[in-house]
Amino acid sequence: MNSDTQKNNVDLMDFACRFFKSRGAALESGMDFTDILVPPDLARSLEVEELITVVSEKAGSKESDMKNRYPMQFQSPLLERITSLAGAKPTFLQAELKFEYIKTQGFDRLITEAFDRNRTKIRITGTGVARTRYLILTSLYQAQSDELKEGLMDFCFNLDTGALIPDMIEPLTHVQKEYPTERVLICSPKEIENIYDQINQNGKKAIEEKLSHFVESMNRRFKRDAGSLEEYYHDLTREMEAGLSRTGLSERLILEREEKIALIPAELNTKKQDLLNKYSIRIDFQPVAALAIITPCVKVFAELMSGRQKAAISLIYNPVTKHMDPVVCKSCGTSSYSLTCCDCMHLNCRACLMKGCTLCGGKK
Question: At what angle do helices 212-243 and 251-279 cross, to 10 degrees?
Answer without folding.
Answer: 180
